[in-house]
Amino acid sequence: MKIQKILKRLLQLHPKSVDLSLDRIKRLLKDLKNPEKKINNAVQVVGTNGKHSFCSTLREIFESAGYIVNLNISPSIKKFNERYYLAGKYISDDQLHDLLLEVEKINNNKKITFHEFICACFFLAASRNNSDLTILESGLFFRLDASNVLKENIASVIMPIGIDHKDFLKKGTIDEIVYEKCSSLLNESKIIISEQKNDVLKKIKKVISTNNSKKIIFGEDYFYKKNDDGFIYNDDLGKINLPLPNLLGDFQISNVSTAIATARKLNKFKIRNFNIKEAITKIKSEGRLQNITKGKLRNYVSKNNQILIDGAHNTMAASAIEKHLRTLNSGRKIIMLLGMMANKEHKKFIQIFKDRVHSIVVLDIPNQTNFIEKIKLSKIAKSCGIPSKTENSIESALRNIAKENENAIILCTGSLYLAGEILNLN
Fold this sequence. Notes:
Blueprint: H1 2-10, H2 23-31, E1 42-46, H3 51-64, E2 69-72, E3 84-86, E4 89-90, H4 93-107, H5 114-128, E5 133-137, E6 155-158, H6 174-182, E7 190-193, H7 198-207, E8 214-217, E9 222-227, E10 230-235, E11 238-242, H8 251-265, H9 273-280, E12 290-292, E13 306-309, H10 315-325, E14 334-338, H11 346-351, E15 359-362, H12 374-383, E16 388-390, H13 394-404, E17 409-413, H14 416-425
Parallel strand pairs: 1-5, 1-6, 2-5, 6-7, 7-8, 13-17, 14-15, 14-17, 15-16
Antiparallel strand pairs: 2-3, 3-4, 9-10, 10-11, 12-13
Helix pairs in contact: 1-4, 2-5, 3-8, 3-9, 4-5, 6-7
C-alpha cells in the first residue's frame, strides 16, 4: 500500500499521462547528477510489437552465458516491480519504496509525467547496480520518449513497426510512426532490424540512411527457418539448429531470432551456441499468448476449457494472434474475452478475428479509467458480425463462458492492462 500511495502522488505531477518532450526528464536527471551518463552498455529497443519478448529472450541469453543484466520494461503486467530488473533480480518492495521516495524528494513537486519520473528512477537504480548489459525498452515512440537520453549505446534494435497510438501524432501515418521511432537512434553503434513488412522496411531504411551505425537486417544479414524439430537460425557466423522457444506462436520465432542476432553481433561478449539453446527454452513472457494451466482461474472453467491470455491491443498484434488461432483444434469454439482502452482502433482490431472467434464477451477493464465502455465495445463487435454480450467481472465472464461451452478455447485479449488484471486474479 505504501508504494501505491507514492505512485498515486506521482500521477498528479502532470495533468497529462503523455506529454512528449525531453525537457522534464533531462531536468530531473540533472538534479539526480545525471545517472544515465554512467550507463555505457545499453541495448535500446524500439518498435510497436515484440519488444517485451525480445527483451526477455536477450536477458535469458546473456544470463545463460553468465553475464549480469539490468532491464527496464514498460508497462508492467502484474506488479510495478517488474519494470526494474537490477543485477539479476527484480527490485524488492522496500528498495522500490526507497527509490521512489528519494527521487520524489529531489523532484520537489516539479511538473513531470509519470513515465518520465519512473524512467529517471530506473537510470538512477541502474547506475548503482553494476551490470554487463542494460536493456532498455522504449516507451511511446522514441524520439521524444524519456528513454532517449543516452549519448552512447552498444546497439539499437528495431522490432516490428505498425500502427498504434495514433492519437499522439499529427497524422498517425506509418511514415510518421517510423520517423518517431527510428530518426533519433544513436550513431556510431549497431542497429539490428527485425522482420518487418516490406513497405515498412523500406521506410525504416530511408529514415536511418544517414545514420552511420552498422545495420544488421533480417532477411539480409540473418535468417530463420522453422522445421519439424524447431528452427534453424543462420547468419554470417554460421547456422544453429534450435528447439522451439518456450513461447507460443510462430511469430515468436522471429522475435527470438532478433535477440539471437543481437547477442551474436555484440562482439565483446562471448555467447556460445549452447547458451542460446539453453536460454530459449527458459523464456518467460507473461501476458503474451500465455496458456493458463494452473491457478485460481481454472476454478471458474471446466477441465476441458483452454485459457489463453495475450495483451494484444493493435492490429499488427491481432493479426499475429489470429494466425496462431488457425493452428489450434478447429473443432473447438473460440470465445474472446475482450477489454480495450479508449484510444485503440477497436473495429479494425475486432474485424481481424471475424472468421476465427465464435463470440465475444466484453468487460470494462478493472482499475483503469481510460477504457472504452463495455456496452459501446460490444456494439462494435456486433457491427463486425460477431455475436457479443457484456459481463460485470472477469470471474463471472469465465464462469458463464465455461457453463455454455465447456470445451471452448477462451482467448482473453485487447489490452495489457486487462491481461495483468486477469493474471493477478490467478
